[in-house]
Amino acid sequence: MISKKFAAIAATVALTFSLAACGGEGAGGDNTTSPTDNNTTSSGDNTGAAGEGKTVGVAMPTQTSERWIADGAAVEQGLKDAGFSVDIQFAGDDIPRQQEQIDQMITKGVDALIIASIDGKALATQLENAAAQNIPVIAYDRLINGSEHVDFYVTFDNYNVGIQQATSLLVGLGLKNVDGSDGDATGPFNIELFAGSPDDNNATFFFDGAWDTLKPYIDNGTLVVKSGQTDFGQVATQRWSQEEAQKRMDNLLTANYNDGTTVDGVLSPFDGISRGIITALSNKGYADDAMPIVSGQDAEAASVKLIQDGVQFATIFKDTRKLAAQSVDAAVTFLEGGTPTPNDTTTYDNEVKVVPSFLLESDIVYADNIKELLVDSGYYTQEQIDKGGN
């Protein structure tokens, strides 16, 4: 059960997110043009019992994606409203920089750490140091592997996110209906597969969920991966890079679709990757109103506009306001001397232990439910969607 304390934090975070959510690129733009990553320390009002005189260190991976800008702002505001001082730092997708930032937080004497890691296996030393100082560590959306000193994990049901990505692809192709029933289409359809960054633990969960959903259709010939690239290592996209996705899609088209055949659908695990794929398809002559079915994730404003315009087919909405609030609630609980209550104690094995986790649910965004999921909930305004950002 979600506590009253969590509900209050969530309300504050929701307001914060509505102001911060659109800090990223415009529609179809390059996701490397956001503000320069920087570090800030801010003080809370010290009105909360748990937070009085205490500081929480927040390590975020980058400011080159609008979701991490918004996550950082929401976590920071939630902590401040709980009475904490906050040391929030963004690492520019640079692993040594994130290691150094966390080391500095520990040296300064933070009382708890909330960490969204760049590389899930690169922070063992930092977590050893945190444990030596009795600093609880909350992994934020990305599991930290190879350490016993991960005290709690807040994330979404990432395997299910992968199922949803694949489901949206099947719906777009007409093989499934939105209600889960079988569609009228029969195929065969040519598809290509993309996965996330191999150093992000979530990427394999996304891909496994998607693969398990698509494999029966591939096995019976309804779906054809013309390139033959179906292993995670073949389809992974380092650092979730839009530019790398565009290059790979261009190569796939050149190598496999110069015989008059076309791509009917592309499994994409992230909206930035989706926009790179769409750019490559556009450059090869695919019109906006005849674009293959392309999935996505994170409901970035740029991609939501593309969905509204009929270019990208779908994305997965993970309401990170709830994620931020849950991480704040976990920090408050630890610093009040308690232990956060997980709703999953079996799934997330970090190679040393199974980390107690709190999993949140996600939704598939199609063109016809944008208003219901994103506007009516206050995540975006219609104007922000129409502009593809601020």
TrEMBL record:
Tell me where in this chain the Periplasmic binding protein domain is found. 56-337
Region of interest (Disordered), ranges: 27-54
**What keywords would UniProt list here?**
Signal
Keyword ATP-binding carried by entry: no
Give compartment(s).
Cell envelope
What sections of the sequence does the record tag as coiled-coil? none
Origin superkingdom:
Bacteria
**NCBIfam families attached to this UniProt entry:** ChvE
Name this polypeptide is given: Multiple monosaccharide ABC transporter substrate-binding protein
Task: State the organism of origin.
Answer: Populibacterium corticicola
